[in-house]
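Morning!

This is the sequence you dropped in the shared folder:
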Amino acid sequence: MQLYTERLFLRDMNRHDKQAIFDYRSDAEANKFQSWIPESPEEVEQFIERNIKEFNQPESWYQVLITEKESGAVLGDIGIHFFGKEHLQVELGITLNKSFHGKGYAAEALAGLIDFLFNDLKKHRIMASVDPDNLASIRLMERIGLRKEGHFVKSLFWKNQWVDDVIYAVLREEWTEK
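The structure's back. C-alpha cells below.
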C-alpha cells in the first residue's frame, strides 16, 4: 500500500525499517496503551515478516508505516483491521514516535487513510478502540471527526486485568458530508 498526504507517505514496512520501528515501539512508557512492545530489533523483523502481504483481506490486520515525505523518516505506524461479514468495516490503531507528537502528523495520517478507505475502497464504517485513560487519543479521534459510540465497562481482558474500552467510529456518509 502507498498513500501520500500533504507531508506524509504511508507505505508498507520492510526489513530495513526494523531499527526505526524498534526505536519508537520499544519505549514502554510512551507506548503504555499499546499491546506490543518489542524487546529487540529481531522481534520487530519477525513482526514485519508476519505482516500480511496482501492489503484489504478479510479478518486481517495490516500494518503501514507513517513516514515523512521529504526526509523519509519513520514517524510511526497504523494498524488496519479489516473485519465484518461484508468486509466493509475497518478498525484503526495508531502508534507515533513521541518525538513527533503535537505536530498534527497522527491526524493527517489517519484522515488521509480514512479518505482512502471510504473513497477508494468503499468501506462502510471505520472505528477505533481507545483506552479511556488515553486522553491524547480521545482528543485525536474527536478532532478528526470520529464520534464516541460507547464506553464499555471492563469489557477487555488486557495485561491480566479487565479494562474499559471506548469505541469511536464514523460512517462513510458522515465522513463525506464534512
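Headline: The mean pLDDT is 94.

More detail when I'm at my desk.
O.
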